[in-house]
C-alpha cells in the first residue's frame, strides 16, 4: 500500500506542524460541530474550544484517493456551504470514541479503499468526548475527506440507561444511532450506520442503493437465531410487553450495520418509540443487553432484509478467552468483529485470530509496519 508518509519520524514532524501551524490548528469547533437546526440534542462543550494539546493518538495519513471517471462528480454542481445536502452523496454515520478510535479509523479507511467513487462519500462522526480533538485527528488522517463531527451529549441517554447492564454495552455513544434522524441535517434522508469494529471490503455504494421498500430500516436478518433469549421472562410473560410482536415474525438483526431511511424515521417518530421502551426497561427489566433490544422491539419483523454478505458478524468471538470465529458461508462484503475480542487488541498482544489478518491492512495506527 502506498502510504504518503512512510516513516514515523515524518509523522511526528507532521504532528508538530499541526500544533504549530495556526492554519491547521484552527478548525473552528463551532463550524465543525454546528447543529443549529437541533439544539436540543447537541450542545457545545466549552472545553472543545480550548483544545490545544497534541493529540495522543498517532495515526498515519491515508493514501489519497480519487473518483473513477464514471462517477458523477458532486462538488462541481453544488459548492460550498451545502455540500452535505448534495443529493449524489453517500452518507455514512459512525461513532468516534477513544476506546474504539483505531477501529473507526480503519473502518473509514476500508470504505474509501473499496469505493469506486470515494469522493462522493460523506462521513458523519458522532463523538461524546470533549477532551480529544477528534476533528483534527480525522482531518490529518484523511485530508480529502468530506465529513462533519457532531457532539452527542451523553446526558440525552444517561437517564434512560439502566445501571445494571454490562459496562461495555452501556457507553452512551452506543445509543447515538437512535438519534441520527435528529442529529443529522434534515436534507440527509438516508444514512448507513456502521459500528467501529468492522471493515468494508466491497463498494459501499451497493449497500447504499439497497431498496428498502416500505421499510425504514434495512439490515441482514437472522431468523434461525433464538429470538426469545434477547428478552427476559418478565417480558414474555406480560402481554402488555410481548404483545408488541403480535402479528409480526420477529427475527434477530445486528444493529452494527443498518441502512436507515431518515425521512421515514422522522415522519413516524421512531426515536420516541425507542425511548419509550428504554423507559419501560428502567422500571421492568425486560431485557439484559443494552442498545440492541429497543431496536428489536421497534423494528424486528419490519426490517428490509439485506444480503448477509453485508454483515459477517461475530468475528470478535465470545467471552471465552482466545476463542476465534470463522466466517459464515457465502460471499463477504463486510467483516464485523462483534463480540468481546477486537482485532487491534489481539494483534497487539501477538495472539491474533486468523481472520484478524483481514483487518490489519486497514489499520492506520502507529508508524508504518
Ligand atoms: C430459546 O431460548 C430460550 C431462553 O433462553 C429457551 O428457554 C428456549 O428453550 C430456546 N429455544 C430453542 C428452540 O432453543
UniProtKB/TrEMBL annotation:
InterPro entries given in the database record: Glyco_trans_8, Glycosyltrans_8_dom-fam, Nucleotide-diphossugar_trans
Q: Where in the cell is it found?
A: Endomembrane system
User: Family assignment?
Assistant: Belongs to the glycosyltransferase 8 family.
UniProt pathway annotation: Glycan metabolism; pectin biosynthesis
What topology in the membrane does the UniProt record assign? Single-pass type II membrane protein
Gene Ontology CC terms: endomembrane system
Organism name: Nelumbo nucifera (Sacred lotus)
The GO terms describing molecular function are: glycosyltransferase activity
| Primary location recorded for the protein, binned into one broad class | membrane
Signal sequence annotation: 1-32
Q: Which SUPFAM superfamilies match?
A: Nucleotide-diphospho-sugar transferases
**What are the alphabetically sorted keywords of the record?**
Glycoprotein, Glycosyltransferase, Membrane, Signal, Signal-anchor, Transferase, Transmembrane, Transmembrane helix
- This chain belongs to which protein, by name? Hexosyltransferase
Q: What is its EC number?
A: 2.4.1.-
- Class of the enzyme per the UniProt entry, highest EC level: transferase
Amino acid at each position: 500500500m502506498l502510504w504518503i508518509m512512510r516513516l514515523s519520524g515524518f509523522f511526528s514532524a507532521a504532528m508538530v506542524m499541526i500544533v504549530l501551524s495556526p492554519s491547521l490548528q484552527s478548525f473552528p469547533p463551532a463550524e465543525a460541530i454546528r447543529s443549529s437546526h437541533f439544539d436540543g440534542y447537541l450542545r457545545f462543550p466549552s472545553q472543545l474550544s480550548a483544545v490545544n494539546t497534541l493529540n495522543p493518538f498517532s495515526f498515519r495519513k491515508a493514501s489519497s484517493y480519487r473518483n473513477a471517471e464514471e462517477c458523477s462528480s458532486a462538488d462541481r454542481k453544488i459548492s460550498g456551504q451545502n455540500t452535505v445536502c448534495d443529493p449524489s452523496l453517500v452518507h455514512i454515520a459512525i461513532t468516534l470514541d477513544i476506546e474504539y478510535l483505531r477501529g473507526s479509523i480503519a473502518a473509514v479507511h476500508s470504505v474509501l479503499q473499496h469505493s469506486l467513487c470515494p469522493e462522493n462519500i460523506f462521513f458523519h462522526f458522532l463523538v461524546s468526548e470533549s477532551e480529544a480533538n477528534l476533528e483534527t485527528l480525522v482531518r490529518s488522517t484523511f485530508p480529502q475527506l468530506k465529513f462533519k463531527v457532531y457532539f452527542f451529549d451523553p446526558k440525552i441517554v444517561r437517564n434512560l440507561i439502566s445501571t445494571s447492564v454490562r459496562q461495555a454495552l452501556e457507553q452512551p455513544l452506543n445509543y447515538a444511532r437512535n438519534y441520527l434522524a435528529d442529529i443529522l441535517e434534515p436534507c440527509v434522508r438516508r444514512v448507513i450506520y456502521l459500528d467501529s469494529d468492522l471493515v468494508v471490503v466491497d463498494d459501499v455504494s451497493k449497500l447504499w442503493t439497497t431498496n428498502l421498500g416500505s421499510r425504514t430500516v434495512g439490515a441482514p436478518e437472522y431468523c434461525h437465531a433464538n429470538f426469545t433469549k434477547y428478552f427476559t421472562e418478565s417480558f414474555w410473560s406480560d402481554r402488555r410487553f410481548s404483545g408488541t410482536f403480535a402479528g409480526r415474525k420477529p427475527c434477530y438483526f445486528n444493529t452494527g450495520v443498518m441502512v436507515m431511511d431518515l425521512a421515514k424515521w422522522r415522519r413516524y417518530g421512531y426515536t420516541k418509540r425507542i425511548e419509550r421502551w428504554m423507559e419501560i426497561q428502567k422500571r421492568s427489566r425486560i431485557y439484559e443487553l443494552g442498545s440492541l433490544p429497543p431496536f428489536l422491539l421497534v423494528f424486528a419483523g419490519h426490517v428490509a432484509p439485506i444480503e448477509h454478505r453485508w454483515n459477517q458478524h461475530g468475528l470478535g468471538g465470545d467471552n471465552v478467552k482466545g476463542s476465534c470465529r470463522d466466517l459464515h458461508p457465502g460471499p463477504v462484503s463486510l467483516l464485523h468483529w462483534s463480540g468481546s475480542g477486537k482485532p487491534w487488541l489481539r494483534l497487539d498482544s501477538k495472539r491474533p485470530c486468523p481472520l484478524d489478518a483481514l483487518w490489519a491492512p486497514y489499520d492506520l495506527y502507529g508508524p508504518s509496519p
